[in-house]
Amino acid sequence: MEMEEEEEEDEQEKMAHAEVLELWQAGLARLVRDPLLCDLPAQVTAEEISSQVALEYGQAMTVRVRRADAPEAPMPVVVVQNASVLDLKKAIQRFVQLKQEREGGIQHISWKYVWRTYSLSFFGEKLDDDQKKLREYGIRNRDEVTFVKKLRK
């Protein structure tokens, strides 16, 4: 008898979770209809919403990241105003991971390999100090940073 009650409680918890998830998705869908947030995808995350709001309030900036060997459009990566190079790298990783999940692409990327093989560059200057602020390199809102392959020594 106790087993049946536990199974019933588990089923109710699952149902409650599904209902909460559905309500959450409906709320997010209403949020992205707002003119300030209309650029966001339908399956938006809370992090993307907070980044967009921070952009609107001038607390964040968009850095466009382009691969040197690819003609595609640059990735618009959002970071806080006083972000370091490491913050930008982490934001790039999150951006690419979300993009891959939404498009059904490669699920695992070895970022250790990526950062060992490629570096970021701004007007020919490599962003090689992870602790240095983007501002110190002269990077401002809507500036473009490039992925360049590291040369072997």
Automatic annotation (TrEMBL):
<dbReference type="InterPro" id="IPR040610">
    <property type="entry name" value="SNRNP25_ubiquitin"/>
</dbReference>
<dbReference type="InterPro" id="IPR029071">
    <property type="entry name" value="Ubiquitin-like_domsf"/>
</dbReference>
<feature type="domain" description="Ubiquitin-like">
    <location>
        <begin position="61"/>
        <end position="153"/>
    </location>
</feature>
<protein>
    <submittedName>
        <fullName>U11/U12 small nuclear ribonucleoprotein 25 kDa protein</fullName>
    </submittedName>
</protein>
<keyword id="KW-0687">Ribonucleoprotein</keyword>
<dbReference type="GO" id="GO:1990904">
    <property type="term" value="C:ribonucleoprotein complex"/>
</dbReference>
<dbReference type="InterPro" id="IPR039690">
    <property type="entry name" value="SNRNP25"/>
</dbReference>
<dbReference type="Pfam" id="PF18036">
    <property type="entry name" value="Ubiquitin_4"/>
</dbReference>
<dbReference type="InterPro" id="IPR000626">
    <property type="entry name" value="Ubiquitin-like_dom"/>
</dbReference>
